[in-house]
Give the backbone structure.
Amino acid sequence: MEFELTRKQKELKDALHNLGRYVIRPMSLQMDREHRVPDAFLKQFVAMASSVRSDQDVGAALGDAEEIKREPPSREKPSFGNRTALVGAEELAWGDASLLLCLPGAGLGGPPVKATGTPAQKKKWFGMLADADKRGDLAWGAYGLTEPGAGSDVSGIRTTCRKDGDHWVINGRKCYITNGARAAWVVIFATVDPALGRAGQRAFVVEKGTPGFTVGKIEEKLGLRASETAELVLDDCRVPAENLLGGDAAYEGKSTGFQTAMKTFDSTRPLVASMALGIGRAAYEYVCDAVKERYMLSRPVPRYHAIVERLAKMHRRLEAARMLTWKAAWMADTGQPNAKEASMSKAAAAQAAVRACFEAIEILGADGTIQREDALLEKWFRDIKVYDIFEGTGQIQRVVISKRILSDLKSF
Amino acid sequence: MKSFDPTEEQRMMRDTVADFAREKLRERSREIEGARALPEDLRRAIAELGVTTLTIPEAAGGAGMSALTAALVEEELAWGDAAVPFAMPGPAALGHALLELADDEQQRRLLEPFVSEPARFGAVAWSEARPHARRAGFNTIAKREGDGYVLDGQKAFVLNAGLASTYVVFAQTDESRGWDGIGAFVIDAAAKGVTVGPRYTTLGLDAATFGEVSFQQVVVPARDALLGRGDFARATRRFFARHALSMAARAVGLARAAWEVSRTYADERKAFGKPIGHFQSIAFLLADRHIDVEGARGLVWRAAWTLDTKSGDDVEVLARCAEAAAEALEVAQQCGADAVQIHGGAGFVRDYIVEKYMRDSKQLALCGPTSTTSDQLFAALALGAPLDPALVLPVPDIQPIFT
């Protein structure tokens, strides 16, 4: 066993830490209030990132799907992509979690295109983002699964699709789509017949500007306000047949390519868990710094057992969750199936981080709730909650885990 | 981070002990408990596995294995039966104490007998039978006399009391200096003035021998005073870090065992026409404890790795060990209690093993630094507070512990 970060991981961590501390955090609250990250900053960030992009692992860490190694990793030939990505994600989220979600690139739309897309499709849609990048423009992909009536229960989606000549016609509404309004393309999930369940589902890449594809409202949220969360409306939206992800072949037979695509969530869960840890750690460090210098009843706060025990517990729960995320990522990097471990890491990290933010505010009292440029705790408190919700709620993670630890458990 | 893979040597050692635990310890848990000791054949078998002298340095004839290897082994032993690592022969806490507090000559001289005579027991006497009421520090006094010391006092909650051939006894050397005026002394069980009190009957870990030892005018030659390699306070903290880590590894083993038994029961026991594991309240409870166990396990591995690789970085070593202990002891108790809960009425009767797991988990959580003292130590390190011994060591007059 070896828990030291690699040199590359350390360098990435240090670079992102300094960026977070000196550049990102000072503008964090303003971005939150304005509900956006300035384009100019994103461009600078992308330019900086491309200077290290030749390095595959770092590219993967920055969410560039094309840089993620193509050859599946194994015990003998491990990748470092997932592990390094965790380190990067935690540190960026420590700076500002919304900003991380605003970074240009395929985002959550990347994994399904990568896993199910035909070579031509991958070339087209990843190429579209790469070209924009080369021109110095910002471009995003997005992922549209959730609907007003279906989130965790994927089988409940009601957006319909029907073949019409060499087009598909899609009708429905998608909600809570990260970067949905600005995305150059969105992976949209629809069904040919809700009665068919998973077997009836199809995934399409819908490009911005497609007739019948419009943006509904942009959500106002509890937290992560600088990140754009959009409602998407598909009203007799006609997409070319070649936009069916993976082509017809991907939906035939029992174990379809489409189902494979759904499984790619296993690799994103530890990543989201790491982001939660970044926020939780920020809150923990903040409250430690604050109590260090404080006196209560003429005694330094660190002399109060009831306070310091809570700090220690906050930290160890975060740290235990970090071990779970590292292990899940190590398993992915060595080609071991990690669906259970990925869910465990997500459930643990979100819970520990939410707890850390709540405790931190409680320890600081009213002071912890004030919104100030140099006091971001109230923002983190708002930001963290959704980490126990998106990418599968804490309860869904526990369903996933339950099915893998108990015999013959198909559903509850 | 690079890997969660154990080395080949670690894997072999762990698998060997895991097989032994599964084949030899599991089914004899109640027998071991009833005997209140490890049966002779198991003692021999364990000594043959070489696990009792694992971390004794090579210079003293031991295997000189890493804390990580020891943690993997202790986890498996405790998985088999949590009382076994407490009841098995070997230096026990005395080994940890000598690794940190003794110089090279003392280590060789005092640890070598444990290698050549695998049936020997060691012990550390820390907690006081009667703590001093009006000042900090131990009530057991070590008075300077000539080159050596004369020791007087009564120690309680001593693991291997009466079984041990050698004790490390902590005592007050300077009554005016509280916790800064303490020392540690090696005392032979056969020395004049050493008397063993009655053995306790305990809540759990029945096979372990806990008792009191009193010392009356015991003469300790200078060469048996442990000086902590020049920094006694630091060495004492590191001794407890090792000790805590070892308890944490056992706690993980016990927690894992309790969890696995509960999971199996949830698969088999039916209610309302289906296995109880198919109810979310049971399934999610199992999912949560699984998360807890695996998280604590990661912390223990990482702490052991830190102890092995960052010997110079006290803050990091102490913090990681304290954190792992706090988490693992808490998780083990939760797993023990939840195991009983999941078994319902069956969990409360002795036909099932989980009532023992629950008792063992609480007993184990009081052997060495507790979750509370470990959290205190961690916080002091994290906040850069002075390492006041009264805050960061298990203080017997506040909360006595078994050593």
Notes: The beta strands of chain B are 122-125, 141-145, 148-159, 166-172, 182-188, 194-199, 210-220, 225-226, 270-271, 274-275. The two ends of chain B are 34 Å apart (CA to CA). Residues 8-90 of chain B form a domain with the Butyryl-Coa Dehydrogenase, subunit A; domain 1 fold (CATH 1.10.540.10).
